[in-house]
Amino acid sequence: MKIKKNTMIIGLGNCGCKITKLFADMGYSTMFANGSEQDLKVLGNMKGIYKLDGYDGFGGHRERAMECLCDNVEFTEALEKIEQKIIILIYAVGGSTGSGLSAVVAQYIKDVYGENKIIVTVPVLPKENEAINRHKNSYQAVQELMSLDEIGATFFLDNNNCEGTDLRWINKTFVSLLDAFLTDDSWGEPNNFDESERLEMLSDPGAMIISYCKDGIEKLLTDNIFAPLQKDRVCNNIGVIHKDKNDVDIDIIVAEVGKPLNISEGWGGKCTLIAVSGMSFPVDHIQRLGKLAVDGQKERQHNIEMAKGHSLPTLEFNDIEKPKIKGDIDKPKLTGRDALLAMRKKARA
């Protein structure tokens, strides 16, 4: 089968929908779900848009996600009619709608299809300088994701890796990388990185990363769009699509990410592409986000308590006598409507 044709990409919330639209523009099958009509208007006349009536975000009440699915039958019916083998959920964990819906939708799909679908998740992590609730939502959303069974690969996109405020670079880079991984049809001697091996990586539970590799493996490990790797050297699969014969030393990759169960290599690629799957979730990084939320809450509560002591002292005010205008002082010139009428009267005289 052709992997691209057998992939359905679902955007949840504003961020997820924006990234999913980039895939739609490249010809992928897509669905969009959000409660904000204003956000959905940005998508234009795309097919597969589902307005979650009555749920423009969950406002921190994550339990409302089940109520949302219960009240929006059209969306759940669409989830039950997906023909593609691979279902990719994209959402921002720091937001409200995508963060709250992600685990519930993933579990719903799993309950409907069982082992007949490969469910891939793409949580987008917030910057470390963002608001308290974004860090709190992120921590809770990843907790919920980790509690799910039989979910495939997870790509943790990290907005901290974007210089400046234009996050579109991360979105576009991820779309380019995943598309290259899904659509590669290169072949050569002595072996090929075939579809079955790529499907195995996508179905592999745990964190997954993909990177172009032009100047060593730095972009795979540090200078990339993904969350920092967990420093335990756990991985299941390494896949490499070589452009040139000696462009990547597999031993260097293994030394950094750990000894895998399988290594798949192919040749003849348009550029060198490296993928690693079955890694541990970046729990150290997620814990940092959670601690930022806790520390931020403590600081805010401290400031609120301090502010309660603010008061204005009682001051004695004396009435100040208004000055009297003497009769010999010239009256001010008229302005406004009276002046205009006087000018017209004078002109007609």
Topology:
Elements: E1 7-12, H1 13-25, E2 29-34, H2 37-41, E3 49-51, H3 64-71, H4 73-79, E4 86-92, H5 97-113, E5 118-125, H6 132-146, E6 153-154, E7 157-158, H7 168-183, H8 195-202, E8 206-212, H9 218-221, E9 237-242, H10 250-257, E10 262-267, E11 273-279, H11 283-307, H12 336-348
Parallel strand pairs: 1-2, 1-4, 2-3, 4-5, 5-7, 6-8, 9-10
Antiparallel strand pairs: 8-11, 9-11
Helix pairs in contact: 1-7, 3-5, 5-6, 6-11
Explain what you see.
The chain is 40% helix and 17% strand. With 349 residues, it is an alpha/beta fold. It has a domain at 1-156: Tubulin/FtsZ, GTPase domain (Rossmann fold, 3-Layer(aba) Sandwich), CATH 3.40.50. The strands form 2 sheets. Strands 3-2-1-4-5-7 form a 6-stranded parallel beta sheet. Strands 6-8-11-9-10 form a 5-stranded mixed beta sheet. Strand 9 (237-242), helix 10 and strand 10 (262-267) form a beta-alpha-beta unit. Helix 3 (64-71) crosses helix 5 and helix 6 packs antiparallel against helix 11 (283-307). The model has no long low-confidence stretch (mean pLDDT 88).
